[in-house]
Amino acid sequence: MVRNVNWEDEDRMDIGDAADNVTESLTRGDDMKSVLKTLEILIKGAKQFFNKEEIASENVINEIVKKYRAQKKVNKVQKKENEDISDNGDMKSVMTKKSKKQENVTKQQIKLIKNMMKQISIFQADYESHIKEDSIIIQRLNYLFSKLDSKSKELKSLFLLPFGQKWKQLNDQVYDGDVII
C-alpha cells in the first residue's frame, strides 16, 4: 500500500493491479481457475469502490444542500426583522444604514448560494454520467468473466484423454480426488 494517498486513489490502484494480474495471467497462459478468481476479485473490488465513491459524492451534495437551506432560512429571518424594525419612525434612519449593509451582505450571499447551486447541478450531472460509466464497466467485467468461464468449460470438455473413454472411467473408479480408493 502507498502512504499519503486518499482512499479513492488507493482503491483505483488496487483495481488497476487486479486488472494487470488478469491480463498477465491470460498472456502467460495460466490456469483458468486462477484467472477467473482474480477477475472475480477485480469485479468485487470495482463494485465496492464505485459504491464508496457514490456514497461520498452523495454526502458532499447533502452537506452543500444543508448549508444552502440553513443560509436561506437565516436570510428570511433577517428580512422579517428588518421589516419589523422599519415600522418604527425614530430608528428608521439608523436602521436604514444597517439594513443597506445587510442587504449588500445578503445579495453577496445570494450570489454565492446561486453559484454553489450551479456547481451542485454541474457536479450532479457529472456524477450521474460517472455512475453510468461505472455500471458500464461492471457490466463489461461481468461479460468478460462469463465469456472466460464459458471458454474454460469449453476447453475442459475438449480435453482429450490419451487412452480414451474407458481409461477415464477406470481413473474415475480408482481415484477419488487425490486419494486412492
Describe the structure.
Residues 79-100 are annotated as: Disordered. With 181 residues, this protein is an all-alpha fold. It has one domain (7-154). It has four helices and two strands, in the order H-H-H-H-E-E. It has a two-stranded antiparallel ribbon. The longest helix has 67 residues, at 92-158. The model is unreliable at 1-5 (pLDDT under 50).
Helix-strand pattern, N to C? HHHHEE
Major β-sheet strand ordering: 1-2
Shape: rod-shaped
Number of domains: 1
The tally of helices reads 4
Distance between the termini: 47 Å
Helix content range: over 70%
Rg over CA atoms, rounded to whole Å, is 32 Å
Mean pLDDT over all positions? 69
**Sheet with most strands:** 2 strands, antiparallel
Fraction of residues in β-strands: under 5%
Number of strands: 2
Give a short synopsis of this structure.
The protein has helices at 7-28, 32-86, 92-158, 164-174; strands spanning 175-176, 179-180. It is an all-alpha fold and 181 residues long. Helix 1 runs antiparallel to helix 2 and helix 2 packs antiparallel against helix 3 (92-158).
